[in-house]
Design goal:
single chain, globular, Spore Coat Polysaccharide Biosynthesis Protein SpsA, Chain A, 11 helices, 2 domains
Length: about 325
């Protein structure tokens, strides 16, 4: 797309849609009713077989800002990529079709982008379970501005302000030039977020609860066990580690990020008797392990990682016997 086709000040909001007829109305209404009105709302019907396709068309008839793409099912990444290909806005946001947003979300974010001269702004996202009361949380609205490096450090090591999710942020669309979501992969956000952050001059966080991340029954993230979930998460960690081969400090941070959840991935595969995946996880992580980096872990994480390098079954058996001892008391 040529730069002349981009509309200054417009936000293109991309919503991938697949089998969510129960949730779509609430999601799209929350976008239509934004106090910031200079929007382009792109609904990508990713081959839904329920009423979602028709609902998208009806929304488009109701609101001229809405554009609809109907396509064969290609997955979440493919749907987001399709939306980006036709987006005309100077800025881009993403909303998952089973989530919803606060009415002032994009107005607040645009104010931060303008006042702080940043390329990305992120907000607080509340996680809520389907059919359970929402616990509204007061946030002070404080704004913190980070350099690209500072934001990446938080993303990997501290997680105080930034998470790898794509949906609680507003981006200068130029950051996605040459970057697309990996098609066919789960945890697709984590595969690209640090690369997007790298291209930004400055990144802000606004401490307001503006995005509602709904954990619904049957969603990918709530599925009991999908082998690709652990494999793709492992791949993201390994790829990020080698991505920073020329930057020892960032590579150390990625290692710490990996260390926090590597045993959980192994245990998830092992408990589900997926021994091939479990062995893959063990060998892949062992291949990048560095004892000198482990000093940056908490003591508990350090012990777990040392035992993991010997073999994760040691941790598994210890936890199992610990539970048994509790039952026998």
């Amino acid at each position: 797309m040529e730069i002349t086709s981009i509309k200054t000040g417009m936000i293109s909001i991309i919503v991938p849609v697949f089998q969510v007829e129960k949730y779509l109305e609430k999601c799209v209404r929350s976008i239509i009713n934004q106090t910031y009105q200079n929007l382009e709302i792109i609904l990508v019907d990713d081959g839904s077989t329920d009423s979602c396709g028709k609902m998208c068309d009806n929304f488009a008839m109701e609101d001229s800002r809405i554009r609809v793409i109907h396509k064969a099912n290609g997955g979440l990444s493919d749907a987001r990529n399709a939306g980006m290909e036709i987006a005309k806005g100077q800025y881009i946001g993403f909303v998952d079709s089973d989530d919803y947003i606060e009415p002032m979300m994009y107005e607040q974010m645009m104010k931060v982008i303008m006042s702080e001269n940043v390329d990305i702004v992120s907000c607080f996202a509340v996680e809520e379970e389907e059919d359970k009361p929402v616990k509204m949380e007061y946030r002070g609205g404080n704004i913190r501005v980070f350099s690209s490096l500072g934001a990446i450090e938080d993303l990997f090591e501290k997680n105080l302000y930034f998470r790898h999710a794509v949906w609680n942020k507003l981006y200068n669309r130029a950051l996605f030039d040459g970057i697309r979501f990996p098609v066919g992969k789960l945890f697709e956000d984590a595969a690209i977020m640090y690369r997007v952050f790298e291209k930004a001059d400055a990144i802000a966080y606004i401490d307001l609860m503006l995005y509602h991340y709904v954990q619904r029954k049957g969603s990918i993230s709530n599925n009991i066990y999908i082998p690709d979930m652990v494999v793709h998460r492992l791949e993201n960690g390994i790829n990020a580690y080698y991505h920073y081969a020329d930057n020892p400090e960032l590579q150390r941070m990625v290692y710490v990020w990996n260390a926090r959840w590597i045993y959980y991935l192994w245990e998830t595969a092992y408990r589900n008797k997926d021994f091939i995946t479990a062995e893959l996880i063990y060998k892949s992580y062992k291949g990048i392990s560095k004892l000198c980096v482990m000093k940056h872990l908490s003591f508990r994480a350090w012990v777990i990682n040392i035992l993991y390098l010997v073999h994760p079954k040691i941790i598994f058996l210890y936890k199992k016997t610990k539970k048994l001892r509790k039952k026998l008391r």
